[in-house]
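Table S2 (text version). Query chain:
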Amino acid sequence: MKKKYFGTDGIRGTVNQGNINGEKFFKFGLAAGTYFTNQKKTKQIAIIAKDTRLSGYTLEPALVSGLTSAGMNVFTLGPLPTNGLAMLTKKMKANMGIMITASHNPYYDNGLKLFGPDGLKLSDKIEKKIEGLIDSNISKYLLNPKILGRVKRLETANDDYIKILRSNFPKNFNLKNMKIVIDCANGAGYKAGAKLLTSLGAKVISIGVEPNGLNINEKCGSTYPKKIQIAVKKYKADLGIALDGDADRIILCDEKSKILDGDQILAVLAKRWKSKKLLKGGVVGTLMSNYGLEKFLKSQKINFIRANVGDRYVKEKMKKYKYNLGGEQSGHIILGKFATTGDGLLVALEILYSLRSNIKASDLFNVFESIPQILENILVKDKKIISYPKTKKAIKKAEKLIKNQGRLLVRKSGTEPKIRIMGEAKNKQLLQKCIQIIKKSLK
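Corresponding structure-token output:
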């Protein structure tokens, strides 16, 4: 049965429309709290973090109210990267962790990402059970006032997260001779980002660290890497780091101002981990991963498999095949040796650890050439248009044209009212022609 509320990465949408409002968040909290309290565990704890959206002030109290009404004790952490929440959920032995965020989306969107006690995103099975509770007579789960949960603010969350990150590397690891630009997208990483790099001795140029509730992801961060390109060139930095709104994505920029996406990062990490005998099994990419990455990994005799788009599906494949490295072109990279979900700052540290011996980023990343790729996001009124006969006919026609010369992928966005078209081919004119055929059918 298809899920009603949860998409590929939690729940997401425009604030005060659909499911993203105080009333629904109260129900989410009550339903999730009821599910976990029914598991008969001794501790009944939920921890909540968020990014910097103005709407967080509306949605968080509603969520807390729902959770405490189900008997959960709640710790609120304030702005914190998503993987910081996942790590602390596990460390604090909480029943669940909830991240209030819409990731790389604009400020007017918001949503939820839910994590279990193991720090992993909740399975489809558990999400469906929570949805069932939401759609039931939810008020019957409201508890007696005497056994309501309590709420406490935890002020040390970012420092605790930084300590966990640093504990994954040798104590003598430092960045004393490095100049680094970091763009925190005015989002969840605005406190932890520069603080982490400065604590390791780097000279840090910070961008996107002045959130006002409305400027998250606005012409900054991983979806707008032009900013780090300009800053790296201006300050003659060794590396540029761009995070997204909840800091689970990372895009890099070398000292020559060349942008390095998730595929390039995966290639470097896979090659290094294999040489250090740290790589287990191989690498999990997605349907969007560049064919150039696949060819490179094959040349290195590294196994490569593709998952559906969405870091939760990457993680599921990693778990199934016992791989410890996976990720997406967009910059979601999962280092299975250290984390349960994408973490931009953790990946940045792993790359910086490779650069510590005066290696230039441009030399480190010069490993494979990407096949030209075009990605179009088409705004639609109804995503069911992807199944219309006219659209199917156009896709079939385009696939026939590009056969044996490239590949096409047309899919519904899991979080936005968009149809995503991705195409790869060395012949750019042919590729553009095929994409136009599909776009025309969607209009």
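Notes on Table S2: The first strand starts at residue 11 and ends at 14. The two ends are 30 Å apart (CA to CA).
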